[in-house]
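#onboarding

Welcome to the new folks! Below is a worked example of what a typical request in this channel looks like: someone posts a single protein sequence, and someone else replies with the predicted structure as tokens. Don't worry about understanding the tokens yet, we'll cover that in week two.

Example request:
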Amino acid sequence: MGSSTDRKDKFQSPPRPDWIKVKGIRIDVQQQMAEKLRGNNTVCLSAKCPNMGECFARGVATFMIGGNICTRACRFCGIRHGRPLPIDPEEPAKVAESVNSLGLKFIVITGVARDDLSDGGASHYAATVRAVKENCPGTGVEVLIPDFRGSADDLKIVLDSKPDVLNHNIETVRRLTPRVRSKFTYERSLELLERAFNLSPEIPTKSGLMVGHGETFEEVIESLEDLIKVECRLLTIGQYLQPRARQELPVVRYWTPDEFDEIKKVAIDIGFRGVASGPFVRSSYFAEELAKSHN
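Example response:
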């Protein structure tokens, strides 16, 4: 039997290097956003995103719809999992009202996986996109969606609402997917992105990876090549950070800023049109700029 120290080390990430120190978020910025976004669930606040103030200053925010309890239990994620509450039918209108009152120029709509719903929450995404488009003309909308268990019909419901960008993260390399992601598969994520392009080629597709789970540089490049093959042209790559000690997967390695720069160079060379790559990059980081790069 291993010692208590050995068992503890299994759950602990290595010390963070200087370049991965989380940027502080001013208290007044948090309070301002919390007040203005009251009644809406945002990833910005719930995840204490280190880029929150920067994005908010640019008129960008990420809304999380469908509640805050996920039906899946991915080992990298700090969101609670279990039995979600019923969908709030007024949520699309509430999101649109907040977007309008804040004068946001671009938003990302994401949500927990809702395998308890017959359409995986697709109609709720579509209703939210339409509410924002109808009430906030000129505001760009990206959707960051789950895989809807591979349903083409559910995906089409979202695409028919005409978001400006459709994002679905593969999250990690092929080899590590079974360890990192619950109920998701690498191939099904690629199939979703390819199907989205085939159904609505006018809507750019986007995906993202976290590094730090033990993947090699070569495996990351292989994943980028897989994304290019399914016509995905927008990409985010960031460093995985363990949300809570002893619960989620620990960090295996912290990638250096130079390595993130090298990934970006390779990604652009093989055909991506918009790439955000860096230690603090998250799925919605500079989402509006990546969307413009596709045009």
